[in-house]
Amino acid sequence: MTDKLTGSDRDDALAPLLANGWTVQDDRDAIHKEFVFKNFVQAFGWMTQAAIHAEKLNHHPEWSNVYKTVQVTLTTHDADGLSPLDAKLAKIMDDLARTA
Amino acid sequence: MTDKLTGSDRDDALAPLLANGWTVQDDRDAIHKEFVFKNFVQAFGWMTQAAIHAEKLNHHPEWSNVYKTVQVTLTTHDADGLSPLDAKLAKIMDDLARTA
């Protein structure tokens, strides 16, 4: 069981993500970001790196891919909303995209 | 440029796919299938195999993944509809899923 982010913990966790292109969804307590790469190999290569980290965290994204674009939504079903795991995976994804 | 499937070529190409769980979309000339695996590693492993084949064909899916489920839509933008490449990639995906 993962605790839902609330109060100042939530603000502190979200601030760097919102500054980095993530947005909070209107219709559910989840964050979303669109990643655009040079081509399919770059996009799917990044997904593969992120997938391995997701499995290590036992926390998996909802994501879709069309050629060089990947749409990612993160939320924690156990917590019925955003948890520290979402912030952690979002940061990993951003870090991986920077070096992709 | 890839030619759009028409007439009996289209029927012949689609028949085995429709018999295997693919459906033609209502709103566009595309085929869709949901693949469900045992877990995330199996699902993403299958995606990785399919991604390599897609890149070899230079024909890429629209797909989304949530944990053990992968939704796939295939169409050919150049042809403004279904082409032989979609039938080819769909069959490869089915074959890979059988051995996953």
From TrEMBL, chains A, B:
One of its GO terms (molecular function) is 4-alpha-hydroxytetrahydrobiopterin dehydratase activity. Its EC number is 4.2.1.96. It holds the Pfam family Pterin_4a. It catalyses: (4aS,6R)-4a-hydroxy-L-erythro-5,6,7,8-tetrahydrobiopterin = (6R)-L-erythro-6,7-dihydrobiopterin + H2O. Keywords: Lyase. Belongs to the pterin-4-alpha-carbinolamine dehydratase family. HAMAP family: Pterin_4_alpha (MF_00434). This is Putative pterin-4-alpha-carbinolamine dehydratase. It comes from Loktanella gaetbuli.
